[in-house]
Amino acid sequence: MSQILSLRRYSHEHLAHSHDHAQLVLGLSGDLEFEVAGLGSRVTRQRFAVVPRGTHHACAAPGGSQCLVFDLEDEDLLLRGLGDHAESIRRLLERPAALALNPAQGQLVHWLAASPLQDPVIARQGALLLLASLAGMHVAEAPAQLPLASLDAYIDRHAGHPLQVADLARIAGLSAARFHARFLAETGQTPMDYVRQRRLQLGRELLGSTHLAVGEIAARVGYASQSAFTAALARQFGSTPRQIRREARDNSR
User: Fold this and answer.
1) pTM of whole model > 0.70?
2) CB distance 95 to 50 below 8 Å
3) Nearest CA among 8, 29, 5 for reference residue 117
4) Is 198 contained in some domain?
5) Which pLDDT value is given to residue 252?
6) Containing domain of residue 185, as a range?
7) DSSP H helical segments within the chain, as ranges?
8) In the chain, which residues have pLDDT < 70?
9) Which of 139, 166, 218, 250 is deepest in the core (most CB within 10 A)?
10) CA-to-CA distance for 53 and 179, rounded, in angstroms?
């Protein structure tokens, strides 16, 4: 069994999974992009996410983030220690949510984060105190926003490989059809148009910042040939690879 309360640092690396216990992810610093069951939100200082048991969730923090994570692996036993607060907390843990802490709750979270959480007595009593402070909170669902930073990071890491809508949909925890509709509604582009533009932007940056051969850059951003890459750049930016490199040199002087 893992610790009830633990400090965790998140980075640009995309994480996606589910587990058979409920979890609270409470922001301490930074900005963690968080998606639970297709609902996107951000976990920042004074905010937290509710992850019900068995619910798929994904997160990434391109700028870095530190959170206090509350794993309720022994949920029933903990709730028995809450007396009249138990039913309120049980309802809180039933569905995904993104909530704001009040100043007193925020102080409690930061006090716990600075405590010796490996001490089982402090961790358990602190967990009970935190749950009791959350009793009666109004559960507001996280805004339905796609985790675009996580999607961008995934596209950049896999730009040289075939990408499908289903690959991106998995990151957002959605079916391919629902993801396509949501993406089009939120960005005004289809997912594959977005991928194409992201690849070309990455290719343009590599042309301006490296001495790699054009064919090598084309392969790195998913184009089968230098000619196809050059034609796509001309359509998107109105410039050839040589012109892009000349402009980058001129701008650096």
Assistant:
1) no
2) yes
3) 5
4) yes
5) 72
6) 158-252
7) 75-80, 86-92, 103-113, 120-134, 148-157, 165-172, 176-187, 191-209, 214-220, 226-237, 241-252
8) 1, 138-144, 253
9) 218
10) 23
